[in-house]
Design brief:
The structure is a single chain. The protein is mainly α. It contains 27 helices and no strands. The protein has helices spanning 3-25, 34-45, 49-62, 67-79, 83-96, 102-113, 117-128, 133-149, 153-166, 171-184, 187-200, 205-217, 221-234, 239-251, 255-268, 273-285, 289-302, 307-319, 323-336, 341-354, 357-370, 375-387, 391-405, 408-420, 424-437, 444-448, 456-464. Helix 6 (102-113) packs antiparallel against helix 7 (117-128), helix 10 runs parallel beside helix 12 and helix 18 (307-319) packs parallel to helix 20 (341-354). The protein is elongated. The mean pLDDT is 93.
Amino acid sequence: MSQKDFNNKQAIFNLVSKFEKMCQKGSVAFPSERPYFMLIDYFQEEYLVDRSLEVADYAIAQYQYSAELRIRKAQLLIDCQREELAMAELDHAEILSPNDLAIPIMRAEALASLELFEDALAILEELKLLVGAEALSRVFLAESLVFEAMEEYQRMFYSLKAALLENPKNKEALERMWICVELSKKFRESIALHEQILDVDPYSYLAWYNLGAAQSYYGNYEEAIEAYEYAFLINENFELAYKDCAEICFEIKNYHKALSCYQEVLEHFEPDYYLFQRIGQCYQNLKSYAIAKTFFEKAAQLDPFNDEVFFHLGECYMKEENWAKAIRYFKHAIRIEDKREEYFAAMGEAYFQSGDYEKALPLFKEATEIAPEQSEYWVKYARFLVDLGKIDDALDVIDEGEEYTGDTNLMYYRVGCLFLLGKRKEAFILLGNALDEDFYHHNSLFDIIPGLKEDSEVQAIIATFQPLH
């Protein structure tokens, strides 16, 4: 936290303390309206709406002719669905300041909250004829909120677009645009719009962010990363841009770049368990298991019921061949969440590696029962049985797995089992069928019997089915 942020927090805490003491004495008064607005903001951010309203009442009692205070109270009342009371406050505000654009706009918002949408839109249509460009942007923004309440997301998009074309610097419109784009699916139009805005205002960090989000939707990851980078370079306090950039880098397996973004978040903002978890996963994927564990442990301290963190810790210990600790962490993950097939399969593998085959077997079986449609767990189960020399049992597992998945990988594992049983003729017939159905997964056969790579007959039949292109 910067010294400035610390000072600001200290100032508001002092103000709240002063306000509480005034309340206890039964007399609240400040030399200007500003402390009241600060207190309203503070209590609202703390989700203490009734406390905010209490502050507003004290403020209005002292500054009876402040339209701004009444407008602010009206907004609080709308936010807590007391629209009729909000309308009364707006009536008072309108007497005090008849030309304040915020009043009819807020009146439209209150009507929309009451689902009187046509009345709300009528007010805004009338305003469009009376105001200039910058004010018109505010009217279109208000209109977009009405369409959002109506769940008319296409119309919401076009109202926000109109607001931004009137005023490309309309921050609230830019902030609301991305959720609107997600709801309306106007991703392509969003790209064009934000590129147009950036031609006018190349330092609009929100426009860069929205552009990055839309590019990400189309899988244009490099363009998205570049846009997010511009967003947080322009505004180094824009946490969401760092995080979304990091997430894309993580998804495309650019772990070094993802780490760089996550480290920026760690440096500038208050960390949470997910940040530590993601940093740990980056180091884990980069095979820096010792460092990864330290971040997973930090994540676990912040969220001791996060099963994924304990699972990742178990994976790190597996890589270090510390089977006992791996089992301990897998058990912890399963105690928190017992419906994750990968947890059971991983613990089964840890028991297998430690030589405790009796405990491993039911864990592999449990993984297939939790996710019978996923062939990888049938493969793990069959592979375990093959490694124990239980080829017939492995074939039974493959039979059951094929019923649920129909995956070609299991067919290749069946071929491998037939070779192990010495049934070469039958194995070659089935291998031909597997190659014909799915040639590109034939390396699965070598997972079960690596020596078949050197088998000339096997290589000959693979060559026969090699696609020409």
